[in-house]
Amino acid sequence: MSFPQFKDLVKVDDDVTDEKYGHYPEKRPIESLFSYGMILIDKPAGPTSHEVVAWVKRILEIEKAGHSGTLDPGATGLLPLGLGEATKALSVLLLGPKEYYALARLHAHAPPEKIKRIMKEFTGDIYQRPPQRSSVKRATRVRTIYELDYLEDYDRLVLMRILCQAGTYIRKMIYDIGEVLSPGATMVELRRTRVSNLSEKDGFVRLHDLKDAYQRYKEAGDDSKLRRFVLPIEHCLEGIRAVTVRDTAVNALCHGAPLAVPGVIGLPKDLQIGELVGVYSLKGEVVGLGTAAMTKDQIEENSKGIALVMKRLIMKPDTYPKAWKSKGGQDANYSTDVPSKVDLSKLEQDSEF
Question: Which one of the listed residues 13, 15, 72, 212 is annotated catalytic?
Answer without folding.
Answer: 72
